Amino acid sequence: MADFVGSVAVFPNNKKTTAAEWVDPESALAVARHEFGEHGGVNMSIEASATFTVMEPEHLRQMFAGELGAGRDCFIYSRHFNPTVLNLSRQMAALEGTEAAYCTSSGMSAISSVLMQLCSSGEHVVASQTLYGGTHALLTHFFPRTCNINTTFVDMRDHEMVKEAIIEGKTKVLYWESMSNPTLTVANVPELCRIAHDKGVKVMVDNTFAPMVLSPARLGADVVVHSISKYISGGADIIAGAVCGPASLVNSMMDLHQGALMLLGPTMNAKVAFELAERIPHLGLRMKEHCRRALVYATRMKKLGIKVIYPGLEEHPQHELLKSMANQEYGYGGILCVDMETEEKANKLMNYLQNFTQFGLMAVSLGYHETLMSCSGSSTSSEMNSKEQELAGISPGMIRMSIGYSGTLEQRWHQFEKALVRMQEDGLFKRI
What we know:
This protein is an alpha/beta fold. Helices cover 37% and strands 13% of the residues.
C-alpha cells in the first residue's frame, strides 16, 4: 500500500524520536501543521463528504491500487480517510510523539482494532491484570470466543512474571495502561518495553489516564491508544478514540484488503473530529489544573486519615518511578482513589458529596470539568469477578475520583469537608 498517512508525520522523514530529540507534548502540538479554513478562516473547514471526486479517471484506479493516498491529499471515502479526521490525527500524533495516528469512533474500537491487526487466530496477548473492565472483558471473553486470541494476565510490577508469561513465537502484544484503572499503578515503561522487544513482542499502552503527563512512545512503546472521550475531549459529550504509532502500522490498518480499521469500519464523524481538534490546544492547561487540584486534595485527605491512592504522594509505591518518566510540569494525573473499605460507606460518601454538598457528580468517565465519582467495583470494573478484582487490587469500597477544575479549589475542598462531617455524624468516619 502507499503511504496513506505521510501528511500525519510529526518529525522529519517519519523517524521515531530519541529521548534527546524529544520536545514536550505542548511544544509538539504548537508546531504541528495548522489547517486553515476553505476561505482563510483561522479554524479549518469541516469536510462532511462521505465520498470524494477525482479530476482524472486514472486517479481512481491509482487510489485503489494504493499508489495515491491521503499523504498526497487524495481521498476515496470517509470510512477510509477524511481530511478533517486526518487533521485531528496529526494532532494526536504530535501529542504522543509518534509518526502517525488514526482517530476512531471510540476508545474500545481503537483498542480492539489494533489487537486484531497485530494478532491472528491462535496467537497470544500478555496483559496487565488491572485494566478497564471493558478491555478486560474483551480479552477474557470476546476474543477467545470469536478470534481464538487468548490472554495471560500478569502483575506488570513483577517483571519475572511478565517474562514467564511471554510465549516466544506466539505472544504478539504486551498490553497495559500507563496508569491502571482504577488502582493507579504505574508500570515501568522502558523496562517492560525492553523485555517485550527482546522477545519480538509489540508493546501497546493505553494512555487515557495520563495525556501530557506521560508519553509512552518516547519511553519505547510501539503503539499508544486513547479514549479521547475523556481528558482530550474534556466535555463529557463525545465518544472517540485514537491509535498512535508508526506510519507502517497505521498504513497496514488502512489496507483495503487486510486492514482492521478499513474493514471493521470504526469511523469517526468529521464533525466530531472538528470539535475535538478545537479542544486539544487547551489540553495542557486543563491537565495542569486537574493534576494540581488532585495533588492538593490527596495531600489534605491523607492528613485527615483517609486512605487515599494517588501517584503524586511520596508514599505511593511508584511515585519515584513516575517522576523519572513523566513530562515535567504536568503533575501526576488528575485521578485519585479513596478507599472506604465497604461499598456501603463508599455509596454513603458519594451520596453526601453529590446530593448534600455539590462537591461532584456520581458518574462514570473522567476528564470532565466537574469532579466525577464512581465505586469502581460495582461500575467500571464490574465486568471482573470478585477474585479478579481482588487480584487487581480493587477493594469493594474504592471510589475513583476524576478531579475537576470548576469552582475554586478552596470552595470545593470545603464541600468535601462538609460531607466528611456528615459521615462522622453517622459514625462511618473518624478523623485523625
